[in-house]
Amino acid sequence: MRLLPQAWTAIHRRYAHKHGYFWLPCTLCNRPYGGHQYAGSIPDPTAEDHRVSIGICPYCTRQGRSWRIPDPLEAVLDEIYERHEHGHDPMRTDCVQCLALDTDIRNAFNQPKEK
Description:
There is one protein chain. 37% of the residues lie in helices and 10% in strands. It contains 4 helices and 4 strands; from the N terminus they run αββββααα. A hairpin with a 6-residue loop joins β1 (23-25) and β2 (32-34). The two termini are 33 Å apart. The strands form 2 sheets. Strands 1-2 form a two-stranded antiparallel sheet. A two-stranded antiparallel sheet has the order 3-4.
C-alpha cells in the first residue's frame, strides 16, 4: 500500500479506515494523510520532553520540513564544543585548549552508547 502514489487520496483514505489507521490533516499544510503512509515528524512545541514529536504528511516530509531526533552523541559533542570555545576556529596543535578539545571528542566516541 505504501508504494501507491500519495496523490491517490481516496484509496489511501479507504485503506486507513478499513485497517484502523488514522486519517487526519497535516499540521503544516492541512493535506489529509493516513497512519499507514510514510511520513516524518516535527518537534511538539507544547511538550516538556524534547523527544516528543508530531507527525506530518508525506508531502511535507518530501519537502524537507521533517525533523529528526538527534543521536545522543550529537548533544555530547555540542556540549564539548561549547565548553572548549576559546577564540579561534581552526584547531591548532600548539594550543593546550585545542588539545583538550581533541581529547574530549576522542573520549566521547570511545565511550559505549547508553541504551
